[in-house]
């Protein structure tokens, strides 16, 4: 049986917010999420559109590349695969590039985002996300280090080619597998 914590991690009680800049301000009346790129049906969702989609829940551990983990987080939001069904990816869509309000970016292979536990989350432990934790909407990818779980999402582009994101361009691993202790690029 696998240990609860990946190599080099220690459990802490709460998520420690980390940002590349200041926490962006948002107005839910004007907020939108664009999903486009290599898709048949690009969409722009406003907040009410997003909330009208089926709700998904994922209870998972959250692992920061800095060496801490928060165990048993209950995330609520929209399953990523729900959005994929809506936009109908083209055959050449193999990757997904995420852009955030603060300029942050990251990417992952589309196939890795289709698990039931990958969410676009707007709640944590039955409460709305706080702005410092990514409100109004953040990606949650439990089987990756947290820098792949982008906060303040505004655009999701399905692409044919893999693009490196903010931390990946600065020497962090593009695969970000906590169970392989895969923190930095080789």
What does this protein structure show overall?
The protein is mainly β and 186 residues long. It has a single domain, classed as Alpha-Beta Complex (Sulfite Oxidase, Chain A, domain 2). It is built from two helices and eleven strands. Strands 1, 4, 5, 8, 9 and 10 form a six-stranded mixed β-sheet that branches. A five-stranded mixed β-sheet has the order 3-2-11-6-7. Strand 2 and strand 3 (43-46) form a beta hairpin. The longest helix has 8 residues, at 80-87.
Condensed summary:
The protein has 186 residues and is mainly beta.
Any chance you could write out the topology, listing elements then pairs?
Elements: E1 10-11, E2 32-37, E3 43-46, H1 47-51, E4 56-63, E5 68-79, H2 80-87, E6 95-100, E7 105-109, E8 119-124, E9 127-128, E10 138-140, E11 153-159
Parallel strand pairs: 1-5, 2-11
Antiparallel strand pairs: 2-3, 4-5, 5-8, 6-7, 6-11, 8-9, 8-10
Provide keyphrases for this structure.
globular, single chain, 5-stranded mixed beta sheet, mainly beta, 7% helix, Sulfite Oxidase, Chain A, domain 2
Poorly predicted runs: none
In the CATH scheme, the class would be Alpha Beta
Largest sheet: 6 strands, mixed
Strand content: 25-35%
Query: What is the overall silhouette?
Result: globular
What structural category arises from helix and sheet content? mainly beta
Q: Taking Cα atoms only, what radius of gyration do you get, to the nearest Å?
A: 16 Å
Query: Which CATH architecture?
Result: Alpha-Beta Complex
Indicate how many domains the architecture comprises.
Answer: 1
- Output the CATH homologous superfamily: Oxidoreductase, molybdopterin-binding domain
